[in-house]
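Known limitations

Files may contain more than one protein. Parsers should not assume a single record per file. Below, a two-record file is shown to illustrate correct handling: read the sequence, read the token line, then continue until end of file.
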Amino acid sequence: METKFYEFSQNNSGGSFDVDENVCHRVIIEAKNENEAIEKFTPMTDNQSGSCPCCGERWYISPSEIDLNYYAKNGYKASIYTHYKDYEARWLAMYGKFKRNEEPKLKKDMFEVFETQVFFESVEDYCQFMANTYGWTTPDIRIHYLNGSKLDIFKQGIDQQQ
């Protein structure tokens, strides 16, 4: 039986995130299909705070499928803005452990960034990248596996709030 991983993202509704034994900023559900993932996820949000008139709904109940084959082949852009004096060290601390085909370089888009593509070989790699990039809660991501086990993923690397 082939399973997939589905990502549910929490909105910072009302200026905070809800965190408990089941949810945090991002929740990943392993399931056979999207409907099964939604069925597993929905009861987890029963005791969560609701929406805010200015910020909107707390949870996006339309999950995104994590396409590991795509990320293993095409990668994901990993970048750090160069306004940090230690941007190279920050990049290495946050993304240096991920597989890449070339070393990061300075690139000019709208802003100057230090970047390259990184590749994920597992859902845990994908989640660690997302936690390092967008980590706002403790834990930052919680994976709910089909067998009932859970894995908490915490941001690693340099705190970008410095």
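...continuing to the second record:
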Amino acid sequence: MTERSSSATYQLTKEKYLSDVEYQHLMSILKRFMPTCRRDCLLIALAALTGARATEILNLEKQDFDTNEGSVFIRSVKGGKDREIPLADWLVRELRIYLTDKDGRIFGITYQRFQKIWCNYRPAKKKLHSLRHTFAIRLYAKTKDLRLVQYTLGHRSISNTLIYAEYHYTQSELRKFLI
């Protein structure tokens, strides 16, 4: 299956991303538990605020973070592109604390463990990958910049990124006429 055909058949549905209410609830959960469960909350926050895949986050090393510039360098998986993503100030502060005594791969857990952590914090019964879709939908809704979403997600082909623009356009147009 080519990149183009895979994106043409993939459909976003409400089960594949967090609603605004669910997203806000997740952020409040993370901020509440950050002091006592820093690693777990950082894993989820990085997924939600960078659009990185779970495996990309698990492969992060200490040198991938630039806490002076407030960014993270993400090495792509699945044939995508590497990218540098800016981070929210509060996330940089928490990362500085967490990274103090870390070397190499900083999270040191398996993908399966990451999924279990997600299940403990998720605001709705949705998959871990929903954080990537949520990020992309929110970024496109805010900027209307498909190339920026493409870059941030590390997509080589814009056709993979089109699902977010198409979904946003369809939902906003329907709201104009039906609500």
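Parsers that stop after the first record will miss the second one. For reference, the second record is described as follows. The first helix runs from residue 3 to 9.
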